[in-house]
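Sample entry (191 residues):
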Amino acid sequence: MIQLTQFPRPVLATSLMVIAIVGWLATGSQPGQQNKSSEKSHIANYFVRDMDTVSMGFDGKPERQVETVRMTEFYDDETTEMETPFFTFYRSDTPPWKLHSEQGWLSADGELALLSGRVTMTRAATADSPAIKMVTSDVRIQPGNNYMETDNHVTITSANDSVNADGMQAWLDDPGRIKFLSNVRANYEPR
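Predicted structure, serialized as tokens:
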């Protein structure tokens, strides 16, 4: 057994001081502050660059796709933030709906996505209808329900037709439909 009296006093004092400093640093305490190690910060748990993921249906066909320049998941609440996200919602017999925004946020359970900044939504033309383009901002999406809404101004163009409105709800499943909430102005050109 080692006895403390075997070490010279300066070595013993220095060793004890180093142990005390290391212990103090390990607890994260600073003089005059409380130890906040039990509090969780909003810090990144992990991040992924250039992500592209596709969710498949039971039939093996794609249901939706998410692409983003950078995705960051946070440790404290498990929410996810995305830079310039691009969503694709596939439909059975028509071209997919594609959404692009400046920023995105996804809840921990994946049931709510928020697209912030300018949001553009497009659908390619079909044999029966021309292409559609929608521009708005700050959109809320329920990915599992293929539902989206916004309270902000919406502009939709399709060939020579256009709709301007404040607020919108959209159901992207078959049959897709859109409901405009207020101040609706439309220009329709018969074919």
